[in-house]
Amino acid sequence: MSERKVLNKYYPPDFDPSKIPKLKLPKDRQYVVRLMAPFNMRCKTCGEYIYKGKKFNARKETVQNEVYLGLPIFRFYIKCTRCLAEITFKTDPENTDYTMEHGATRNFQAEKLLEEEEKRVQKEREDEELNNPMKVLENRTKDSKLEMEVLENLQELKDLNQRQAHVDFEAMLRQHRLSEEERRRQEQEEDEQETAALLEEARKRRLLEDSDSEDEAAPAPLQPALRPNPTAILDEAPKPKRKVEVWEQSVGSLGSRPPLSRLVVVKKAKAEPDCSNGQPQAAPAPGAPQNRKEADPAPLTPGASSLSQLGAYLDSDDSNGSN
């Protein structure tokens, strides 16, 4: 089975590479490459900011007559994202960086400027010492004085570290912990005192409110119970009538005051003629009752039932009929 991606080609035995014609390409030929902006820059035409890492389709070419230790230097052409102005920059293998040529200004290069300034000062010093021996002596004196100051500062730091080495950090931490506990205990006591004060105030306020309510709603003194009035029952409202059963309609209720008790008359003896005046009492009319007491119904007996009173009533009728 053949490979899907084959990198090796088949060369026949009679292959002669010298017979392949060579193309004559210009030395300043440009290639289109995809790259990212190597630094932050600002367009001089429109003022647009182009940040580091923004991707561009750039044209790449080799700079003629510029080589650093045999390494070629390349130039790149990009366009501004806003105004499409052309911006160019090239490689700087000496400083392992890029150099802006035209079309924009580089931003945020303070570190690079500082390095360049240090290099410039060092070069000027070397030029001065080359032709002036006195200047060499002065620079050496300054360097020795600066070195002594550095050593003194270092010795002071060492002495300070030695003094601090005798400090008991455990005791310091323990003291700090005790002070923290004391402060926490004091805060807790203050909180408890405030809480107790608030509770005491609330209790006093509640006692005052309870005393005020008791004074307002004090019960009246008990009055001696009055004896009931016998006629008070007449002033009361009439009670609703009880439903009368069927057997009560014919026989009567078994209560203390049955309805048939009005029809019962207690049997009385005949009244004797009153001879106190010496004259006999006139006989009553045939239809009139002989005595008022006889006309009135008999008084009710508290314990008598309706059946017994009905029997008494029947006996009185029998006795009247026999007479």
UniProtKB/TrEMBL annotation:
Q: Name one Pfam family in it.
A: Saf4_Yju2
The entry's localization annotation reads: Nucleus
Tell me if S-adenosyl-L-methionine is a UniProt keyword of this record. Answer: no
Q: Where are the transmembrane segments?
A: none
UniProt keyword terms in alphabetical order? Metal-binding, mRNA processing, mRNA splicing, Nucleus, Spliceosome, Zinc
Q: Where does the source fall among the domains of life?
A: Eukaryota
Known HAMAP family for this protein?
A: YJU2
What function is annotated for this protein?
Part of the spliceosome which catalyzes two sequential transesterification reactions, first the excision of the non-coding intron from pre-mRNA and then the ligation of the coding exons to form the mature mRNA. Plays a role in stabilizing the structure of the spliceosome catalytic core and docking of the branch helix into the active site, producing 5'-exon and lariat intron-3'-intermediates. May protect cells from TP53-dependent apoptosis upon dsDNA break damage through association with PRP19-CD5L complex.
Could you describe the subunit structure of this protein? Component of the spliceosome. Present in the activated B complex, the catalytically activated B* complex which catalyzes the branching, the catalytic step 1 C complex catalyzing the exon ligation, and the postcatalytic P complex containing the ligated exons (mRNA) and the excised lariat intron.
- Name by which UniProt lists this protein: Splicing factor YJU2
| Lineage of the species this protein comes from | Eukaryota, Metazoa, Chordata, Craniata, Vertebrata
